Amino acid sequence: MRLAGCVSAMSIKKIDTAIRLLTLAEAASILKISKRTLHRMIQQKQIPAFKVGGQWRILESRFQEWVQEEESSPSKLS
């Protein structure tokens, strides 16, 4: 039985390192924009996010993918 408990703890630790969530404040800070602007972008489905307990969260890996896509896409101002 002890071994099963260790395996479970190891599995949880592996999941913990694999899944990282950002808060609006963290993501806004990374992008150097206000939380309000980030919230607006989420509402317009420009940034992938979801709610956990009524609060917005952004999966860090999806956020990084989005940033890379934005970097490689042509400027929207032209």
Descriptive overview:
- With 78 residues, the chain is an alpha+beta fold.
- The chain has a domain of 46 residues: Molybdopterin biosynthesis moea protein, domain 2.
- It is 60% helix and 13% strand.
- It is built from 4 helices and 3 strands; from the N terminus they run H-E-H-H-E-E-H.
- It has a 3-stranded antiparallel sheet.
- A hairpin with a 2-residue loop joins strand 2 and strand 3.
- It starts with a helix and ends in a 6-residue tail after the last helix.
- The model has no long low-confidence stretch (mean pLDDT 84).
User: What level of helicity do the residues show?
Assistant: 55-70%
Task: Note poorly predicted spans.
Answer: none
Mean pLDDT, to the nearest integer, reads 84
Biggest sheet, in brief? 3 strands, antiparallel
Number of helices: 4
Tell me the β content. 5-15%
Please state the CA-atom Rg, rounded to the nearest Å.
Answer: 17 Å
CATH topology of the domain at 20-65: Molybdopterin biosynthesis moea protein, domain 2
- Run of helices and strands: HEHHEEH
**Strands, count:** 3
